[in-house]
Amino acid sequence: MRYPRWAAVAVLAIISSAAVAKVPEDQAARLGVELTPVGAEAGPSADGVIPAWNGGVTRPPACFTGTGGRYCDPYPDDLPLFVITAKNAEQYREHLSAGQLALLQRNPDTYRMPVYSTRRSFANPPAEYAASRTNALNAELLANGEAIAGASLGVPFPIPSNGHEVIWNHKTRFRDVSVQRWRNQFAVAASGDYNRTRLREDVLFNYSRSDIEPADRGDVLLYLLQVVTDPERLAGSVVLIHETMNPLDQERRAWQYSPGQRRLRRAPNLAYDNPLVGADGLGTTDQNDMFNGAMDRYEWKLIGKQTLYVPANSYRLHDDRRRYPDIVQRNHLAQDLTRYELRRVWVVEATLRPNTIHQYRKRRFYVDEDGWQIRVVDVFDGRDHLWRVQEAHTVIAYDVPYELPICETVYDLQSNRYLVQALNNEDPETVAMPFDVDHFAPGSVSRLAKN
To answer: What is the pTM of this model?
Structure first.
């Protein structure tokens, strides 16, 4: 049973129709001084484990071969400082999420978290920094947090005051404006066997475009065209999404094409907790990119900040000398290929609203202060039991620069299965492609699908 969308809209309208206040000038003046241009604490932690931000990685290392080349490791000589296992996890409990502790306990002999020196590698183009300061003075939440106004290009809320703002920062974080990427998805059984789905995605991050005025951008946050190339039974399937800035006023526009039907059809079910294609029930639509889409089914609470061991600078995992069987193993990834660092993260808790439905009753998000990337999510079922754990492994695409997710996982603690997304080790690197809006028009996609 699904509750009608108008019911959620009506409730939100009653709760609040007012805008959330903007940041005053004296607060915005902190950006680029005591705060980084996108709102992180610029200085080191008191113990020095987290260093000061020095601008991040903005020049490719010598190992980078140029546009289209693999993003290689700028820290090749780094070695783990220590490794967290089930045996010593209690020593590091204060810097681990409940989900991470559960993964260690569930796989005591094999699950390891190699911890490296914290490298604050995050960087964005200067225009992104300038826009973030402008947004701090002008951006506001509307419709009880379901929409934003007065923001463009940069982080909308570099000095957040509530959970909605933190999640909006994640959804709008800068990524190369127009790209083509390959994403391999693996639904891994408890035995270690897996089903692989290979996808090509064309993406236009409309929000981040600097070639048009914000007023000409329309209501679309991003355009996504996804084509399945393998396995054969799914090959030729197409998903087209126009993600909107106000998903309650202008809901996500989505279409699906099936080779058997030979028709591009509207697909309003591509949202919330509807299952991902080829994921064997291990992931929901709104878990793509760690979280996406409307937030109206949850109450969002900003808990504050803490330090957490999170995946970051995952260049070893991204190495194209690694084959997929080297990475996707029984029960979990090949953890020796991962890299964890101590980072300051914003903690946001989302609790299901009364009289709404979602298979996840509660979710706790850990969002990196440096680039607003959701790093870890603890997911709870209807009985408030820990059910799933998400992690995002990223690298800095230093020739742009921006933070690029290269592997996302959803671990199911109850079935001991897991889902892997976004790997491209055996496929071309993510590259800029000059897509325009017409490329994502339903008519254009329909003709492409039939050819």
So the answer is: 0.94
